[in-house]
Amino acid sequence: MDLRQLRYFLVVAQERSVTRAAARLHLTQPPLSAQLARLEHELGVALFVRHRRGVDLTEAGRHLVEHARRVLADVDAAAESVRRTGQGRSGQLALAFVPATAWSVLPPLLRRFHSALPEVELRFREDGTDAVAEHVRARRADLGLVHLAPGGAAGGVGPDLDVAVVRREPLVAVLPRDMAADLGERVDLADLAEEAFVCPARELTGGLAGHLTGACRLSGFEPTLREVDLVQTVVALVGAGVGVSVLPASAERVCGPDAVTRPLARHVPVVETGLLRRRADPPSPPVQGFLRLALDTPEPDVLGPAYARRAR
């Protein structure tokens, strides 16, 4: 008994006629009759009572109808599930990320991914930069989203992980509102050399702390640092007059009424946000789908042609 025979059997049962069923199946009558005879022979029972007007189901035939419908429905559902998984439309994706990306880079990526692939189950791990890389390395996460350290897209990540740069943004000064009014539209960090700099924790934000200290050094001084855990806390403390800071331009989104951002007068390296994945492992369809969406941006693709952005 095979699936083709069951499908033929159900059509004949619905039509109550081998002739009409053959026409519906785009077959001639003899091969269809032969398939039905083989099915009855295999089961050892008659499924139809044949007469001049067509066929009627026997008790065994009516029983088989119920089972055949369930079997074929299960097979069709399994086939569709396999197709969805193979095309990346279902399955699971584990994503690790640093806290500072949760209000800047991550939300638009997740909105686009959920819109494109709503059946993929997302799992999250929020952690520090080194821990995010380790989650990816240890297969606790499929992808990791981090702010990269200054000096190159792969700086500090390690040779076993690939890095896809998904966003670049300039650094800005974050200042108490009253102070910003006295400094003009662009801020030279050298004018802030005597101020305390509120710095996001290195273990949680990784590259952001390096960018802050690097920008100050390019302006000719070593900053006095006050380290806190989260970028949101940095902005709150700056607004309270505790100090100043240097953060990616998207920090403006979390500035309250007491803190403002200003462009820098001197050129400093931009902040790159990267997606990490294991180099040795072929990406699953959901991972591949996430990478394609993330790289469909003006930023360059460093994963190679397999994940190239679509032509515009």
Automatic annotation (TrEMBL):
<protein>
    <submittedName>
        <fullName>LysR family transcriptional regulator</fullName>
    </submittedName>
</protein>
<comment type="similarity">
    <text>Belongs to the LysR transcriptional regulatory family.</text>
</comment>
<dbReference type="InterPro" id="IPR005119">
    <property type="entry name" value="LysR_subst-bd"/>
</dbReference>
<feature type="domain" description="HTH lysR-type">
    <location>
        <begin position="1"/>
        <end position="58"/>
    </location>
</feature>
<dbReference type="InterPro" id="IPR000847">
    <property type="entry name" value="LysR_HTH_N"/>
</dbReference>
<dbReference type="Pfam" id="PF00126">
    <property type="entry name" value="HTH_1"/>
</dbReference>
<dbReference type="InterPro" id="IPR036390">
    <property type="entry name" value="WH_DNA-bd_sf"/>
</dbReference>
<dbReference type="InterPro" id="IPR036388">
    <property type="entry name" value="WH-like_DNA-bd_sf"/>
</dbReference>
<keyword id="KW-0805">Transcription regulation</keyword>
<keyword id="KW-0804">Transcription</keyword>
<dbReference type="Pfam" id="PF03466">
    <property type="entry name" value="LysR_substrate"/>
</dbReference>
<keyword id="KW-0238">DNA-binding</keyword>
